TrEMBL record:
InterPro entries (alphabetical): Phytyl_CoA_dOase-like
Source organism per UniProt: Actinomadura vinacea
Official protein name in the record: Phytanoyl-CoA dioxygenase
Length: 262
C-alpha cells in the first residue's frame, strides 16, 4: 500500500510537470541553440561573454569575496569537491551580465515554458587537485524538468575538471523511471545547499557498468565540455552527466538552474 501511494504521488507529479511544460521556439532569438538542446540535451556557445566582462567578474570575485583565498565567509559552502558562493549577485553586480541575461532567459523559457524561473545562482570553484566526489559517476539531477547554465570564467581544458555529458540521454526512456523515483522519494536539500539526509548524495547515480550498458544500448555519445573563458554551457539535467576531478590549475564558473514554477 505504501509503495502504491508513493508511485501514485510520483506519476501524478510527473503528469503535472508534463502538462506545465511548453516548448516555444518563438521565445528565443537563437533557435540553433534550442535545436541542439532539444536534440542532444546540451548546447555549448563559444564567446558568449566578451573577455573584458569576464575579467571584471573575476576581479570582483577576487576583491569582494574570499572564495579564491581563505573561503571562510558564511555564504560559501563545500559540496561535491566544489566551493559554492551562494546568491552572489548582490555582492557581485558584475555577474548580472549572466544571471539577468535576456538571451539565457529566452532560451531557458523556450525549452521549458514561458513561466520558467531561475534558481540557485552561485559561483563555483574547483581548487583541490585530485579530489573526487560521488557526482564523478554518471547521474541525473532531478525528477522534474530542469536545466543548468554554466558560464566559464577560466579556460577549461581536459585537466581543469570539465563536465562530461551523454548526448541524447535526456530523452524519455524506461531506464530513467527508477532513478527519477529515487529523487522524488528521497532527495532533500538544506537551504545552504547541503544534503539533508544520507540518501540524497546517491540519488540518480549509475554504476560505471550501468552507464556503459545504457550508452551502448541507446547509442548515446559522450561530450567533454571544455572551452575558453566566456563559453556558455546549457544542458538538460535529466540527461546523464558527470564531473571529473581537477588535475591542474582551478575551475571557476557561474552557474544557475532554470525550472518550472513549483
Amino acid at each position: 500500500m505504501i509503495r502504491f501511494r508513493e508511485d501514485l504521488g510520483f506519476y501524478s507529479a510527473k503528469l503535472r510537470q508534463f502538462r506545465a511544460r511548453r516548448i516555444d521556439p518563438t521565445l528565443t532569438n537563437h533557435p540553433e541553440h534550442l535545436t541542439k538542446l532539444r536534440r542532444d540535451g546540451i548546447a555549448i556557445v563559444k564567446d558568449f561573454i566578451p573577455p573584458d566582462r569576464i575579467a571584471a567578474i573575476v576581479d570582483q570575485i577576487s576583491n569582494k569575496t574570499d572564495l579564491l583565498t581563505e573561503r571562510t565567509s558564511p555564504g560559501i559552502v563545500k559540496r561535491n569537491a566544489r566551493f559554492l558562493l551562494l546568491e552572489p549577485e548582490q555582492a557581485l553586480p558584475s555577474t548580472r551580465v549572466f544571471f539577468q541575461n535576456p538571451e539565457i532567459r529566452g532560451l531557458a523559457r523556450a525549452y521549458l515554458s514561458k513561466d520558467a524561473v531561475p534558481d540557485r545562482p552561485a559561483v563555483q570553484l574547483k581548487a583541490d587537485i585530485g579530489e573526487k566526489a560521488i557526482v564523478d559517476f554518471f547521474h541525473i539531477d532531478e525528477w522534474r524538468y530542469l536545466i543548468s547554465v554554466f558560464l566559464l570564467l577560466t579556460d577549461v581544458g581536459p585537466d581543469e575538471a570539465p563536465m562530461v555529458y551523454m548526448k541524447g540521454s535526456h530523452r524519455q526512456r524506461l531506464w530513467r523511471i527508477p532513478k527519477e523515483r529515487e529523487f522524488f522519494s528521497y532527495y532533500d536539500r538544506q537551504s545552504d545547499g547541503q544534503y539533508a539526509n544520507e540518501e540524497s548524495p546517491y540519488c540518480g547515480c549509475l554504476l560505471p557498468t550501468e552507464a556503459r550498458r545504457l550508452r551502448e544500448r541507446h547509442g548515446y555519445s559522450e561530450i567533454l565540455c571544455t572551452g575558453q573563458a566566456g563559453t556558455l554551457i546549457i544542458f538538460d539535467n535529466l540527461g546523464l552527466h558527470r564531473s571529473t576531478e581537477l588535475r591542474a590549475n582551478k575551475r571557476l564558473i557561474l552557474s544557475s538552474y532554470w525550472m518550472l514554477p513549483k
